[in-house]
Amino acid sequence: MSVDKTDLQVSLKKYFGFSKFKGLQENVVKSILSGKHTFVIMPTGGGKSLCYQLPALMQEGTAIVVSPLIALMKNQVDAIRGVSNQEGIAHVLNSSLNKTEVKRVKEDIVSGVTKLLYVAPESLTKEENVDFLRSVKISFLAIDEAHCISEWGHDFRPEYRNLRSIIGRIGENIPIIGLTATATPKVQEDIIKNLGITGANTFKASFNRPNLYYEVRPKTKNVDADIIRFIKQNEGKSGIVYCLSRKRVEELAQVLQVNGINAVPYHAGLDAKTRSSHQDKFLMEDVDVVVATIAFGMGIDKPDVRFVIHHDIPKSIESYYQETGRAGRDGGEGHCLAYYSYKDIEKLEKFMSGKPVAEQEIGQALLQEMVAFAETSISRRKFILHYFGEEFDNETGEGGDMDDNVRNPKKQHEAEDEVKL
Ligand code: ADP
Ligand code: MG
C-alpha cells in the first residue's frame, strides 16, 4: 500500500488527534504500510503503540496484536474505541470471553469492521483460533513487548517462542512487526531469529534520557536515614522507592510514615483493592511516595515523578533503566538514586540458585553488568547507553553532565567505602 505524507498526517489527526509524529513513528508506519517485516526498538513512552495502530486503522483486514498483559490490551482497546467511537473497531480475544462474545468478535472480523485484534500468545495457540484466523484477511501481525521471546530479556515468556510457527499456520506472507523497549543487542538478535524476520526494516530510537540524573551511593546501615533525608530535601515531589522484598517494602513505608513522609506501600501481596487505592492516591497526589516492589510501575503513566530510589540494586541494567525511566516522563527533573552494596548482589545470587542452570547463567551475566555499573567510575549515562549499543559522548551529548561520576569524578575507587552518610 502506498500513501503519501499528507494521507498519513490526515489519518494521524483523524484517529489520534495528534498533529505531528513522534520520533521515528512516521518511518515505521510507512514501513508497515509497505508490507515489510519491521522491527521497532524504542524506549518506554516512545509511542510504539501508534506505530502499529495507525497502519492497522488505515488498511484493509485485521491486524493481530500479540501482547503479554490483559490489562494493557484492555487499555489500548478502550483508547482506540474511544477515538473512533466504534465498538467493533478493536477487540480482545481471550479465554475470559463467553460464547456470545466470541461470536460477536468473529462476526466483526469477518465483516471487516475490526481493524485491531489483541490476543495473548496462549489464545493464539488455540487450534480453533488458528483455524478461524486462517480464514480471514489479516493485514499484519504485531508482537508488542517482543523481548518476551528472549531468555536474555527481563520478562521471558516461553509461550512467545511458538509464535513463529503459529504465524506460519495463520498465513504465509503475513508481515511481522516486532516492538520492544529492550535495547540490548543480544535480545534484539533473539527476537529477529525467533520471529524469522532477518532483513526486517529496523528502527531504533536513542535510549538517552537527558533529563534524568543518575547517582549510586554506597549502601550502609544508615540507608533508611539517608533516604528520609533525600525525600525531605525533595518535599512535595512525587517519587517511587523500589525494594526487593515485600517485607522491606512494608517496613520502609512505615519508617517513612513515622518520619512524617506521606508514603504508601505497594506489592503483589496486598489485595487488589488496597493496591489500586494506593496507586490511585499516588496518581492523584494524595500521597507523595510509593514504596514498592517491581510489581509497581508497568503501564503507570504519571508524568511528573521527580525521583526513583532503588533501596536495593536491581537484577539487571534493563530493569534499572525501566524503573528509573519512570522518572521525569514530562521532560522535567528526575533524580535516580540507587544504593549499592555487594551483599545485595549475593542475596540476588541466592534467589537465583533454585533456578535451572541455563537461567542462572544468564541471570549471573546480567547481574555482573549491574555490578560493573554500580562500581564504575565512568559516566553512568555513557555506561548505560553503551550497554544498549549506543555510543555517547559526554562533551557533546545531551545530559552529558547529568550523573554523579561526571559531576564528582572519583579519584580512587576504594575511597567509596569510607564515605560517611
Ligand atoms: P510505548 O508503548 O512506546 O511505551 P505508548 O505507545 O504507550 O509508548 O505511547 C506513550 C504516550 O505517547 C501515549 O500517551 C501516547 O498517547 C503518546 N503519543 C504517541 N504518539 C504521539 C504523537 N505522535 N504525538 C503526541 N503524543 C503521542
Ligand atoms: Mg507499549
UniProtKB/TrEMBL annotation:
Q: Has the keyword Magnesium been applied to this entry?
A: no
The protein's Enzyme Commission number:
5.6.2.4
The molecule here is called DNA helicase RecQ
Keyword Acetylation found: no
| Helicase C-terminal domain ranges (all copies) | 222-379
Which key words are in the record? ATP-binding, DNA damage, DNA recombination, DNA repair, DNA-binding, Helicase, Hydrolase, Isomerase, Metal-binding, Nucleotide-binding, Zinc
Q: Which reaction does it catalyse?
A: Couples ATP hydrolysis with the unwinding of duplex DNA by translocating in the 3'-5' direction
Q: Which GO terms describe its molecular function?
A: 3'-5' DNA helicase activity; ATP binding; DNA binding; four-way junction helicase activity; hydrolase activity; metal ion binding
Similarity remark: Belongs to the helicase family. RecQ subfamily.
Query: Mind telling me which GO cellular component terms the entry cites?
Result: bacterial nucleoid; cytoplasm; replisome
**Uppermost EC category:** isomerase
Single GO biological process annotation from the record: DNA repair
- Domain Helicase ATP-binding spans what residues? 29-201
Cofactor requirements of the protein:
Mg(2+); Zn(2+)
